[in-house]
Specification:
It contains eleven helices and 17 strands. With 398 residues, it is α+β, with helices and mostly antiparallel strands. This is LCP family protein.
Length: 398
């Protein structure tokens, strides 16, 4: 079947499905869908070829539009591959807002330290409970929602509401990475080639590494991403620096292996991702993920920028952080789809200020939220010139 004919058939099928969805109640659609027997033969069917005998490149479903994706790193011990110790808490200490430019020429990954004090909006959970708006640590939104709903749906939804409220961005999807999934992703790539600048002995993260250039398997890479206590100054911003170092090496390995240029390897990585991660419906498509990858074929390691939101100690509790005014510029640039590296292209970008979800307009600072765990004093983390470092700059050989 020719490509244009396949597209026409797909279009008619899409219209038919849409008409069905509009014509009958959702419950009926669900019931009918459950009666359909699904047979998946994708692994046995060859990729379609064009007139030249070459495999058709998958299409980018969001071509011409910027993408904002929330990446959440959870340390839940539930599920296969996640039981690394006897902890029972379900927390999310890693939050990254990933921005992919509309022309697919660059990507920016903005990390938010977990200890940042922010205004958290109301949060609905699957249990029916609504967590009232409050002022607290950034990562408490996920933790409180999990406690109330006892599921990922509640926790992730509250994180999405929080990020959209604070940044003014519209999130196009999310990726929830749990410990076992992270290990699988790294192992699917064959490990990460990285320079470890100094020896690391972090028993709590079950990690011991010598200094020097080496390839980390999934388990060691997870330990490197998790390590905080006993490594460096023990603060979350410094752990984020190591995570960015690890992610830059991962990006470099993906690009150096030509994953984005090789259709079978690209599909293989996408399959590994879908097996290992929990994602939003907007990202739960192998062809769509592959299409996005093909659209980013020209990406180089210097086109991927890692940034940490600029912070300073929170005055009422120096073990906590607060954003500086420079953080507003980061969100402003992302909303305008402007690069974070270099000077702003449009000084007149629209300002955004989240409303106080508590309705309290007083100037009095609320008290810092009490949290469990080791107390460390974070250093002020100013933004670098032009915000952030590229994957190429972060991933230097020993």
């Amino acid at each position: 079947m020719g490509r244009s004919r396949r597209a026409a058939v797909a279009g008619r099928l899409g219209l038919a499905v849409l008409a069905l969805a509009l014509a009958v109640p959702t419950a009926v659609v669900t019931d009918l869908r459950n009666q359909v027997t699904e047979i998946d033969v994708d692994d046995l069917v060859d990729a379609p070829s064009n007139a030249d005998g070459q495999a058709d490149e998958p299409g980018d479903p969001n071509a011409g539009e910027p993408l904002n994706i929330l990446i959440i790193g959870s340390d839940s011990r539930q599920g296969e591959g996640n039981h690394v110790d006897d902890e029972t808490s379900v927390l999310a200490d890693t939050h990254i807002v990933a921005h992919v430019a509309a022309d697919r020429s660059r990507a920016e990954l903005v990390s938010v330290p977990r200890d940042t004090m922010v205004e958290i909006p109301d949060c609905r959970t699957t249990s029916g409970d609504v967590i009232p708006a409050r002022f607290g640590m950034f990562n408490s939104a996920f933790a409180y929602a999990w406690q109330a709903g006892q599921d990922h749906e509640s926790a992730v939804a509250c994180d999405i509401n929080l990020v959209q409220h604070l940044t003014g961005l519209t999130l196009d999807g999310f990726v929830l990475v749990e410990m076992g999934g992270f290990v699988d992703m790294v192992d699917a790539l064959g490990g990460i080639d990285i320079c470890i600048p100094e020896p690391i002995d972090a028993p709590k993260a079950q990690l011991t590494l010598d200094a020097g250039q080496q390839v980390l398997d999934g388990t060691d890479a997870l330990g490197y991403a998790r390590a905080r206590v006993g490594v460096g100054d023990g603060t979350d911003p410094e752990r984020i620096e190591r995570q960015q170092h690890l992610m830059s090496a991962f990006v470099d390995d993906v690009l150096s292996h030509n994953v984005l240029f090789d259709a079978p390897e690209l599909y293989g990585m996408a399959q590994a991702a879908l097996r290992s991660l929990s994602v939003s419906p907007s990202l739960n498509s192998l062809p769509d993920l592959a299409g996005l990858g093909f659209a980013m074929q020209g990406l180089r390691s210097e086109d991927v920028t890692f940034v940490t939101t600029p912070t300073e100690p929170y005055p009422l509790d120096t073990n906590r952080l607060q954003w500086t005014d420079e953080t507003d510029e980061i969100w402003q640039r992302l909303r305008a789809d402007e690069p974070l590296a270099g000077e702003a292209e449009d000084e007149a970008a629209t300002d955004y200020s989240p409303e106080d979800p508590t309705g309290d307009s007083s100037d009095e600072e609320p008290e810092a939220e009490e949290t469990a765990g080791e107390e460390t004093t974070p250093e002020e983390t100013p933004a670098d010139d032009g915000f952030g470092d590229s994957a190429k700059d972060l991933n230097t050989a020993c």
